[in-house]
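Supplementary Note 2. Why include the ligand at all?

Several targets in our set were suspected to adopt different conformations when bound, so apo predictions alone were not considered sufficient. For every target with a known small-molecule partner we therefore ran a joint prediction. The input for zinc ion is given below.
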Amino acid sequence: MDADLHTHTTASDGTLTPDKQVQLARDIGLMAIGITDHDSLNGITEALAAGERYGVEVVPGVELSTDCQGREVHILGYYPEREAPELTGMLDKLREARRSRGKLIVDKLVSLGLQIELERVWEIAGAGAIGRPHIAQALEEKGYVRSIKEAFERYIGSGAPAYVPRFKLSPEDAITLVTRARGIPVLAHPGLVDLDALIPDWVKAGLKGIEVFHTDHNQAQETRYARLAENLGLLVTGGSDYHGPGRKTTVGLGDRRVPMDNVTRLKQVKQELNCRY
Ligand code: AMP
Ligand code: FE
Ligand code: FE
Ligand code: ZN
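The joint prediction is reproduced in token form.
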């Protein structure tokens, strides 16, 4: 009776189509699956249709990368309206920025003497919001690295020679965008962010939930964030951050879950938001 509320598909840097991912969710016995692609809602229509077909509840969402004091803060937005022009306009802009940055990274790799073709990177990304995992795959294919992880460490990760930062919103901007699209802003994997002192400020900006359960959280972090959620009156979410086979190969769909009660609460808040407007 569990849900995995954090997954990526081919609409961003995952390797499974939304349809295949929802099918897999059914096969492993998930009751609900969150589709939270980076900077894109383009997988949602297909995922919802697959949800109907396979009898799995699909929780539509998005994951926005923001920058705060030089650190990456990821904001998940659940149940945003897909017609909200401010949000869709910003998602278009963020994906365009990903394309320009992808080109800059490839330029840097080429100037380092690596034979990486931009065309191949576009091909790997397909219709998905382009991200470094796509470039990492191109590096792996050419034999420059043996794994995606090595590609980040040696070439494209923060501090590596072909690293290029990307246009990012502030956490407050992302929270406001999701809120104005009548979605529910949730702080993703706070254990990776390590800016706990700022969480109350984000709550003032409209943050409604916190991802307590995540494959990169240890037991102590889960306990800490569960307590924080209770103290601040925040919704509790969780998920695997699955990217499909071939990306983070150690993480499987459903490796981190939350009870369906948490999905029910999420939907109650969505209902309240709709009533208030
Ligand atoms: P980007 O969105 O282009 O900045 O790339 C970030 C994405 O790369 C994350 O969402 C993960 O999917 C992936 N990623 C980040 N660090 C690593 C790593 N060390 N190994 C493998 N994948 C990573
Ligand atoms: Fe990713
Ligand atoms: Fe994330
Ligand atoms: Zn994610």
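Strands lie at 2-4, 32-38, 57-68, 71-78, 184-187, 209-214, 235-239, 258-259. The radius of gyration is 18 Å. Comparable summaries for the other entries are listed in the accompanying table.
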